């Protein structure tokens, strides 16, 4: 299983962080390689995105299921590949530092569930930390763009 973790200080209140991460419509397009998404229900959606790891380029179609909405500081989800055999999980967590400063933490874990899993595991192990960092930074930057108290 490949794991990624990244945290970033955001110049916004924890409530403003929650405003963004609690609404998939506000951050789905921030996923690296985003192509499109469909909201099926409050807890289920399907996402399409491109993965590019050198020689490995693939369009991924995944089901995302929200497992927890814990206001104001946690959203956790699972991932299931629809066109590729993989599973995973992830989360966004926020910790209030002060009225206008919040730490945002992104986590992502992906496991290939196919017979070629051993072949692609090294590629996934390199990609997941980068994807986690990029998604966490994208979400944090969008929070600051929309809600920073210094703007």
Low-confidence stretches: none
Look at the structure and give the mean pLDDT: 90
Number of helices: 3
- General form: globular
Task: Please give the radius of gyration in angstroms.
Answer: 15 Å
Strand content: over 45%
Give a quick account of the main beta sheet: strands, pairing sense, barrel closure.
Answer: 7 strands, antiparallel
Instruction: State the helicity in percent bands.
Output: 25-40%
Number of beta-strand segments: 7
The main sheet orders its strands as 1-7-6-5-4-3-2
Can you give a write-up of this model?
A seven-stranded antiparallel β-sheet has the order 1-7-6-5-4-3-2, covered by helices on one side. It has helices at residues 14-21, 24-27, 117-147, and strands at residues 2-10, 34-39, 44-53, 56-70, 74-81, 86-98, 101-112. Helix 1 (14-21) crosses helix 3 (117-147). It is of the alpha+beta class.
